[in-house]
């Protein structure tokens, strides 16, 4: 039984090769590039070039009910980028970062804090109100 099946598979393979060989198949392979396509003078590089990067944006979020207060501003022209961002920290201070990037000179940041850090229970009132956590081992809320 297995020998008969092998013979059938071999005969089908031979028939497929014979059918493929009998048809005229035109192969359009990769040829040698023409002299026109290799000439740099005849090429237009305008389509590959782009203008230098230039943008300016800013955004901000201020939500008194949650205490969220943060934002960013950035401008870029070519390789020169300048910007700043700020965030209201949980301890009451406002962190302000002003930065500059000029080509390959790296990222230069100036970090400042406005206000005095407070660690009283008033600033964490919402956290103590919702003082529950999820215990993943027992699947119970405590």
Automatic annotation (TrEMBL):
<dbReference type="InterPro" id="IPR000618">
    <property type="entry name" value="Insect_cuticle"/>
</dbReference>
<dbReference type="InterPro" id="IPR051217">
    <property type="entry name" value="Insect_Cuticle_Struc_Prot"/>
</dbReference>
<feature type="signal peptide">
    <location>
        <begin position="1"/>
        <end position="20"/>
    </location>
</feature>
<dbReference type="GO" id="GO:0005615">
    <property type="term" value="C:extracellular space"/>
</dbReference>
<keyword id="KW-0193">Cuticle</keyword>
<dbReference type="GO" id="GO:0031012">
    <property type="term" value="C:extracellular matrix"/>
</dbReference>
<protein>
    <recommendedName>
        <fullName>Pro-resilin</fullName>
    </recommendedName>
</protein>
<dbReference type="Pfam" id="PF00379">
    <property type="entry name" value="Chitin_bind_4"/>
</dbReference>
<keyword id="KW-0732">Signal</keyword>
<dbReference type="GO" id="GO:0042302">
    <property type="term" value="F:structural constituent of cuticle"/>
</dbReference>
<feature type="region of interest" description="Disordered">
    <location>
        <begin position="64"/>
        <end position="84"/>
    </location>
</feature>
């Amino acid at each position: 039984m297995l020998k008969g099946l092998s013979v059938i598979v071999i005969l089908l393979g031979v028939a497929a090769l014979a059918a493929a060989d009998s048809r005229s198949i035109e192969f359009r392979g990769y040829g040698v590039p023409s002299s026109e396509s290799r000439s740099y003078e005849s090429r237009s590089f305008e389509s590959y070039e782009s203008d230098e990067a230039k943008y300016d944006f800013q955004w901000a979020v201020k939500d008194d009910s949650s205490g969220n207060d943060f934002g960013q501003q950035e401008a870029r022209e070519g390789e020169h980028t300048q910007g700043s961002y700020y965030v209201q920290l949980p301890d009451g201070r406002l962190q302000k970062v002003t930065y500059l990037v000029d080509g390959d000179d790296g990222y230069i940041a100036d970090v400042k804090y406005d206000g005095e850090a407070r660690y009283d229970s008033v600033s964490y009132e919402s956290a103590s109100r919702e003082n529950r956590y999820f215990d993943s081992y027992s699947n119970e809320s405590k």
